Amino acid sequence: MSKIISFALLYFISSSYLSAQSIESGNWKGVIHYETVEVPFNFNFRSLSDSSAIVIIKNAEEQISIKNVIVKKDSVFIPMYVFDAVIKAVYKDGKMTGEWHKNYRNSKGPLFTAEFNQPRFLTTLPKSIVVIENTWEITFTQRRGQTSKSVGLFKQNGNKINGSLITELGDLRYFEGVLYGDSVRLSSFDGVHGFLMMGKFENNAWNGVFHYESGYSEKWNATYDAKADLANPFSLITVLPGTHKPYYDILTAGGDYNAIDDDDLDGKVVIVQLMGTWCPNSLDQSKYLAEWYRSQDGEELALMAVTYEPGDKVYAQKRIESYATLLNITYPMFIGGSLSKGQAALAFPNMGKINAFPTLIMIDRQGYIRYIDSYFNGPATGTYYQKFKQEFNKKVKELLNE
């Protein structure tokens, strides 16, 4: 009798294990469940072995490839690419259920669920009666009444709509959604942010709610305006040539004090990126800078990243090492300190605080601060991203030729 029971138990364990490995390969619909709304996104799942898989998160034309997914019995662990976050889920009866967790937060993350072969949004929604124009002037209103401006950049294809939003804190990256009747829904999930934008068109204007995270949202309204724009990121903070030099010893005070040898920088054009490994805009800019730097002459130019993290020095160092490895960054990265715009500006006497992460500081051969790029328009913004690259390279060339 005991042999029969042992055999049955072994069969049950083995069959449970095997069924856990038979996660369907192909397209899935993931959902992040906030208090009052759900943020949908799509991802592709492909098993590599009994214990590993690849996941590709999709937002419009963006594809985020995650190659170190772990499958263990009935559980799936999906690290969020370079970010210190993870989706932990149990696979059962063709569905995934679990949590989207940011490891640097002590609180539990929102519920995550996923179903195989489901669209991001319903495909049976009524046909749109609205024709989208490409450029929107958007006003966001916080709960206490403060407002901020944004520009929406969207493209319509039937009932489908893709695009991005730019703000003077950086772009909100890739959105994908649907138009139905007089309404719109767009979502974006990049591993560290889950956004949902909902709106309705009436009286020649859009009005709606933008959900940033569970429990926090802002109202928004928008009108079409082909000339809508924001301040040039290089113009928000200006500095007179020959007036201010950075304090390199203070710049790394949150890590190893005086870690930067400024003698090595004498006579060079220096680019300082103030960033965070938790920040999607910093990721986009770091990808560009890593590739750009490999084509530059290190004898004439120096590039460094200084990072501000939601943790202590040990945590920050681990994040830097992981980040640099994943992005193949060959220029030095330093710990600046804790996550604070004020602390990020301490080494620069012309600023009380930075405007946003990332911020680029451009320093001439004489060691003076010359240009500051106060926010970043990444690849999701199309022509705005191209403008950044053109202006950045123009200013680098100008400083090198002095």
Strand order of the largest sheet: 1-2-3-4-5-6-7-8
Low-confidence stretches: 1-20
Relevant CATH superfamily of the largest domain: Glutaredoxin
Strand count: 22
Tally of individual helices? 6
CATH topology of the largest domain: Glutaredoxin
Oligomer: single chain
Question: What labels describe this entry?
Answer:
single chain, 402 residues, alpha+beta, Lipocalin, Glutaredoxin, 3 domains, 8-stranded antiparallel barrel, 8-stranded antiparallel β-barrel, globular, disordered N terminus
Structure, described:
The structure is a single chain. The longest helix has 20 residues, at 2-21. The radius of gyration is 24 Å and the shape is globular. It has an 8-stranded antiparallel beta barrel. The protein folds into 3 domains: 20-116, Lipocalin; 135-224, Beta Barrel (Lipocalin); 248-400, Glutaredoxin (3-Layer(aba) Sandwich). The protein contains 6 helices and 22 strands. Helix content is 19%, strand content 41%. The chain has helices spanning 2-21, 248-251, 280-293, 313-327, 341-344, 383-400; strands spanning 26-33, 38-47, 52-59, 62-72, 75-79, 85-92, 95-102, 111-116, 135-141, 147-157, 160-167, 170-171, 175-180, 183-189, 194-202, 205-213, 216-224, 269-275, 301-309, 333-338, 359-363, 369-373.
How are the elements arranged and paired?
Layout: H1 2-21, E1 26-33, E2 38-47, E3 52-59, E4 62-72, E5 75-79, E6 85-92, E7 95-102, E8 111-116, E9 135-141, E10 147-157, E11 160-167, E12 170-171, E13 175-180, E14 183-189, E15 194-202, E16 205-213, E17 216-224, H2 248-251, E18 269-275, H3 280-293, E19 301-309, H4 313-327, E20 333-338, H5 341-344, E21 359-363, E22 369-373, H6 383-400
Parallel strand pairs: 18-19, 19-20
Antiparallel strand pairs: 1-2, 1-8, 2-3, 3-4, 4-5, 5-6, 6-7, 7-8, 9-10, 9-17, 10-11, 11-12, 11-13, 13-14, 14-15, 15-16, 16-17, 18-21, 21-22
